[in-house]
Design goal:
- The strands form three sheets. This protein has a four-stranded antiparallel sheet with strand order 1-7-8-10. It has a four-stranded antiparallel sheet with strand order 2-5-4-3.
- Helices cover 22% and strands 32% of the residues.
- The radius of gyration is 20 Å and the shape is globular.
- A hairpin with a 2-residue loop joins strand 3 (44-48) and strand 4 (51-57).
- The longest helix is centred in the middle third of the chain and has 15 residues, at 111-125.
- Helix 2 (58-65) crosses helix 6 (111-125).
- The protein is built from eight helices and eleven strands.
- The chain is an alpha+beta fold.
């Protein structure tokens, strides 16, 4: 597809370190943080070594910090708990030395560590308390289709600008976008459980995907597919080729994804959060 130079590698956001999603390590905290009511809208990220800034409504900071899946944001309990927290706050925080060295200048920042520090700031300064509840949710079931699983990998598939000897880390599932609607999902020495959870996070906005394949090994393969629910803006040139859906791309690997499975999922429940932060 044309305009490959515009490819954006989002592996840092979508690579799945599966086991750590709901852990809030108490040691991951900003050294000093100023939190003030403000106006406007801005990024929540490490803007320079040693400095983290965020300009968002409090409810959005909670969604970001706890990585609340899109489908759970519509849950009536979460909607009720989020009401009244539309006030925008500006956070300017000093990042501890070791983390600052590791994060570097964007886009090198460690997203998971940044969100862990933001979680702890919300807990400390807004007296936020929470718990997780197991609830039934609609999800997808990943199985092997009649043709049988036959993982195939495109040897040319790697992030733009990566060296020739680039090898993704084991157990990684990363998604890359190509303008305007082409997607690659790269799977490297990952189990089917890891792959299913990667699909949930990177393609289906957190909707649960369970591994029902029965496959026990680790696998490497990649998928090329169109962006789900993508509507091109007016005047966009017609694509030069027709891309498969994510379901068709999985089918070519010998996998099948079925909706309407009822699964148990962890839902974030906010018990309490102050509307104003403790003093800086």
């Amino acid at each position: 597809m044309a305009n490959r130079a515009l490819a954006i590698t989002l592996a840092a956001l979508f690579t799945c370190s599966i086991e750590a999603q709901k852990i809030t390590p108490s040691e991951l905290k900003f050294e000093v943080a100023s939190v003030k009511p403000s106006k406007g809208y801005g990024e929540c990220a490490s803007q320079s070594p040693g400095r983290f800034t965020c300009l968002r409504p409090l409810q959005e900071m909670i969604v970001m910090a706890f990585e609340v899946p899109a489908y759970q944001r519509l849950d009536p309990t979460f909607v009720r708990a989020s009401k009244g927290y539309e006030q925008v706050f500006q956070i300017v925080a000093a990042v501890p030395g070791e983390a600052a060295k590791k994060w570097g200048i964007p886009p090198k920042g460690n997203f998971e560590e940044q969100m862990a520090m933001l979680r702890n700031l919300l807990i400390d300064r807004f007296t936020l308390t929470y718990h997780y509840e197991k609830r039934e949710a609609q999800g997808y079931s990943l199985t092997v289709n009649k043709a049988g699983f036959r993982p195939r990998r495109d040897p040319t598939s790697k992030p733009v600008g990566a060296p020739k000897d680039y090898v993704p880390p084991a157990g990684s599932i990363s998604r890359r976008f190509y303008f305007p609607a082409e997607n690659w999902l790269d799977v490297t020495r990952a189990s089917m459980r890891e792959f299913a959870e990667g699909l949930s996070r990177s393609v289906f906005q957190g909707i649960p995907v369970t591994d029902d394949t029965g496959l026990k090994d680790v696998y490497s393969f990649n998928l090329r597919f169109e962006t789900p629910d993508y509507t091109p803006p007016p005047g966009t040139p017609e694509p030069t080729e027709s891309l498969p859906t994510i379901f068709q791309a999985l089918g070519r690997q010998g996998l099948k994804l079925t909706r309407n499975k009822r699964v148990m999922a962890d839902f974030l429940v906010i018990d309490h959060v102050d509307k104003s932060p403790k003093e800086n």
